[in-house]
From TrEMBL:
GO terms for biological process: alanyl-tRNA aminoacylation. It comes from Weissella soli. GO terms for molecular function: alanine-tRNA ligase activity; aminoacyl-tRNA deacylase activity; ATP binding; catalytic activity, acting on a protein; transferase activity; tRNA binding. The keyword Lipoprotein does not apply. The lineage of its organism: Bacteria, Bacillati, Bacillota, Bacilli, Lactobacillales. This is Alanine--tRNA ligase. Keywords: Aminoacyl-tRNA synthetase, ATP-binding, Cytoplasm, Ligase, Nucleotide-binding, Protein biosynthesis, RNA-binding, tRNA-binding.
């Protein structure tokens, strides 16, 4: 067998399919773009869904890629099995309505067995096929697959719900008898429960359409266009070529494990339990590095929660290896070195990624200490009760403090306790349901629209330079998803042979305008423009007069609307550049919206942007507007564009020719949108707001031109109104007037507080003489006419000086709200009375809740009528003690 590195195996796969006419699509970001159905890119086909559902027709219907993917549904298995990973690479070849079984099966056989390529022994290859798919079986026999190596399996049908589906065929590599680890001989076959037969490649024949209501795949209709979707796991294939017992003993993981050995002093391969920790650290270090490199950041929700969980799990396993300080940051450059040949950006951004990891490790080490203290308290409470740690508490340890269930269970076992696993699982299931609901109900793969997919009418966009077309021929009219020749009224879709209307793309909204006939009558208004699957501009028209296919019409873009959008689009590029200049190059675009009113720009950044930095950004953009920089564009090939220094937004797939927009020498980007002619046309740039929208993603909204003027006018009006209210003759005096009013208010509040304290003190003196007994304890309950919790606390402080009772219960009626306070003397605490427990018992009576320390606790509520009931419950509670 050939000795191949992981880089060579990946490269050979891509070169093979390139030789078969496929276009190589670079690996896309792990963070999905415009796909709410996915939290992460989780497969090789995930980034190509727009081609498979017919939304977009690719320039080349043959595609190949090596796509990084991230899955955490089996995270608990990582490290315990040979091949479970959170981050993995899936190599695939795809046909979008081009070739099918007659081509893909011979190519798979050639790649795997030809000496020119992988050169695997044909006798070690096996396949499974769907029983009804006789074509695939015959094709495998034709290429030379040994008949006894073909297994029929009813599970070989790929179906994830409504949309494309079909039979599949899976390829297995026989690692030999030495790997036959099963104790059940009947499992010794491909797809059986064994390590001998290793699944390496799955080829899906996407040929049926799973329509709503259908449950039997035998009744699924054929797709308008049949597709091929394959996935070959890089990590698995590397383990074959490098004769590794598991994926972890390959060049994709061993350097990380060796570095972990160096940091820990432990040795991989000497202790099976410690080996699990080595594997988990190696796997999670890769995932965290790539996820942060693609713009996701640690947080308590969504993708950020996944990163935080992976990182914390790795830190905990580092402790098992004897590493007590930060260490994962030192594994980031190791990951970058391993993956450099195909993912150079990881190594280039290693310092930034490591800085995020370092900060998160430090945060968790503090949290971990707090969590360990909490665990001690949890176990003490369990010992004092029934010896069982509740599932909800174990889940809190897992969810809030990053403790895997196994860690809590291990600590509980050492202390002679048990954990309610069923309760934990119930809490976990509830969280998973919440996560699924948060991702929405968008389908994972749409159903093809045959009409639009087959529509190949030529259509040329000229709106970059022309906003009016005198004679555009109407090529197609679509009404109710059918081609028609005439439209009298209503809303239809239309394609013209030439158009000045911009179609919605890249966050920029489409143009609006009118359609005029040769007689000069407006016969339709343009309500929307989208890109059809084959690239045409598909206009949505509100028809007022007859439209006929084959006739010519004048098309006019709404100039004012178009100009406002173009200014905001130019400002988006300038904002993007300013953010990278001031916040750092790791700040990357995460989404945008450009319309005639404003621009909205989402970007990755760890934390809020300070007011000072925002002002720097705004000042830089306005400085470039004042410089009146020219805005120009050219069309060129992608490599020339990169040499010019053009920035690619996201990791978008670009065609052979790309449009590059330059704003003087300030900014140059790949872009297909419309722009102002010079920066001076923007007039002014004003940031309206900055806020977080999710884990590690910030959003800036800004305005330009007339929008900026309106914003300034509105704020000027507000300032003048404020000046009137504070009686400031000049706007410049408003601040001084406000400061004077604040000083007066502060003095008035001080006087009120002083008076309130005196009244409380007088009331308390009387109350402190009214000491009663409940069981073994003395108590005082009283309602004070005060307006704040501070007044209650001050009264409690006065009570502490003499402690006329064991327990003090105070209440304040605030009209629609209630404040409660409980204080307990040291001798009562020693006897088992805790303020926090008592406040929790009585707070429901006033419609609230609270907590606190053993000596003092407080609560709030919304039912003043329940104050006397709360006092009564306090007496009952004390009597029971």
């Amino acid at each position: 067998m050939k000795q191949l590195s992981s880089a060579e195996i990946r490269d050979m796969f891509l070169r093979f399919f390139e030789s078969k006419g496929h276009s190589i699509v670079p690996s896309q970001s792990l963070v999905p773009k415009d796909d709410p159905s996915l939290l992460w890119i989780n497969s090789g086909v995930a980034t190509l869904k727009k081609y498979f559902d017919g939304t977009v027709i690719p320039e080349n219907r043959r595609i190949t890629n090596a796509q990084k993917a991230l899955r955490t549904n089996d995270i608990e298995n990582v490290g315990h099995t040979a091949r479970h990973h959170t981050l993995f690479e899936m190599m695939g070849n795809f046909s979008i309505g081009d070739y099918f079984k007659d081509e893909v099966i011979p190519w798979a056989w050639e790649l795997l067995t030809s000496p020119e390529w992988y050169g695997l022994d044909p006798e070690k290859l096996y396949v499974t096929v769907y029983p009804a798919d006789t074509v695939a079986k015959e094709k495998w026999l034709e290429v030379g697959m040994i008949p006894s190596h073909i297994y029929e399996n009813d599970d070989n049908f790929w179906d994830i719900g409504e949309g494309p589906s079909g039979p599949d065929t899976e390829l297995y590599y026989d690692r030999g008898e030495a790997w036959n680890n099963t104790e059940h001989p009947e499992e010794n076959y491909p797809d059986g429960d064994n390590e001998r037969f290793l699944e390496i490649w799955n080829i899906v024949f996407s040929q049926f359409n799973h329509l709503p209501g259908l449950t039997d795949n035998a009744t699924y209709p054929e797709l308008p266009h049949k597709n091929i979707d394959t996935g070959l796991g890089l990590e698995r294939l590397v383990s074959v070529f490098q004769n590794a017992p598991t994926n972890f003993e390959t060049d994709l993981f061993l350097p990380i494990i060796r570095k972990t050995e160096e940091l820990s002093g432990a040795r991989y391969g000497e202790d099976a339990t410690l080996d699990i920790s080595f594997k988990i650290i190696a796997d999670h270090a890769r995932s965290v590095t790539f996820a942060i490199g693609d713009g996701a950041l640690p947080s308590n929700e969504g993708r950020g929660y996944i990163i935080r969980r992976l990182l914390r799990r790795a830190v905990l396993h580092g402790r098992k290896l004897g590493i007590n300080g930060p260490f994962l940051n030192q594994l980031v450059p190791v990951v970058g070195e391993i993956m450099h040949s195909y993912y150079p950006e990881v190594q280039e951004n290693a310092d930034y990624i490591a800085s995020i990891v370092t900060a998160e490790e430090a945060r968790f080490n503090k949290t971990l200490s707090d969590g360990l203290s909490l665990l001690d308290g949890v176990m003490a409470d369990a010992k004092a009760q029934d010896g069982i740690i509740a599932g909800a508490i174990a889940f809190k340890m897992y969810d809030t403090y990053g403790f895997p269930y196994e860690l809590t269970e291990e600590a509980a076992t050492d202390a002679g306790l048990t954990v309610d696993r069923a309760g934990f699982d119930a809490e976990m299931k509830a969280q998973q349901e919440r996560a699924r609901a948060a991702r929405g109900n968008a389908s994972s793969m749409g159903v093809q629209n045959a009409l639009l997919t087959d529509l190949t009418t030529a259509s040329k966009y000229v709106g970059w330079s022309e906003l009016s077309v005198e004679a555009a021929q109407l090529e197609n009219i679509i009404a109710d998803n059918q081609l028609v020749n005439v439209a009298e009224t209503g809303q239809v879709q239309a394609i013209f042979d030439i158009t000045p209307f911009y179609a919605e793309m890249g966050g920029q909204v489409p143009d609006k305008g009118t359609v005029t006939n040769t007689a000069g009558d407006i016969v339709a208004t343009v309500a929307d423009v989208q890109v059809a699957p084959n690239g045409q501009h598909l206009h949505t028209l509100d028809v007022q007069g007859p439209l006929k296919v084959g006739e010519t019409y004048r098309l006019d873009v709404d100039l004012a609307y178009h100009a406002a959008i173009s200014k905001n689009h130019t400002a988006t590029h300038m904002l993007d550049q300013a953010l990278r200049n001031i916040l750092g190059e790791h700040t990357t675009q995460a989404g945008s919206l450009v319309n005639d009113k404003l621009l909205r720009y989402d970007f990755t950044y760890n934390g809020a942007v300070s007011e000072a930095k925002l002002q720097e950004v705004e000042d830089l953009v306005n400085a470039k507007i004042i410089e009146n920089l020219p805005i120009s564009w050219i069309e060129t090939d992608i490599e020339s564009a990169k040499q010019l220094g053009a920035v690619a937004v996201f990791t978008e797939k670009y065609g052979e020719k790309v449009r590059v927009v330059s704003i003087g020498d300030f900014n140059i980007e790949f872009d297909g949108g419309t722009h102002a002619k010079t920066t001076a046309e923007l007039g002014m740039f004003k940031i309206v707001s900055e806020q977080g929208t999710g884990a590690g993603v910030r959003r800036i909204e800004a305005v330009t031109g007339q929008g900026a003027m309106n914003y300034v006018k509105d704020h000027d009006a507000l300032l003048k109104n404020a000046a009137s209210l504070v009686k400031a003759p000049q706007l410049s005096e408003v601040s001084d007037k406000i400061e004077a009013l604040q000083a007066q208010l502060k003095e008035a509040e001080r006087q009120v507080a002083s008076l309130e304290a005196k009244l409380a003190s007088q009331a308390a003196k009387s109350a402190f003489n009214d000491v009663k007994t409940a069981g073994n304890f003395t108590y005082i309950t009283t309602e004070l006419a005060v307006e704040s919790m501070d007044a209650l606390r001050q009264t409690a402080d006065n009570w502490k000086q003499n402690q006329p009772s064991d327990v003090l219960v105070l209440a304040a009626n605030l009209g629609e709200k209630v404040n409660l306070l409980v204080a307990v003397a040291p001798q009562a605490i020693a006897a088992g009375v805790k303020a926090g427990d008592l406040i929790k018992a009585i707070a429901p009576a006033v419609g609230g809740g609270g907590g606190g320390r053993p000596d003092m606790a407080q609560a709030g509520g919304k039912n003043p009528a329940g104050i006397q009931e709360a006092f009564a419950q306090a007496v009952t509670w004390l009597a029971a003690k």
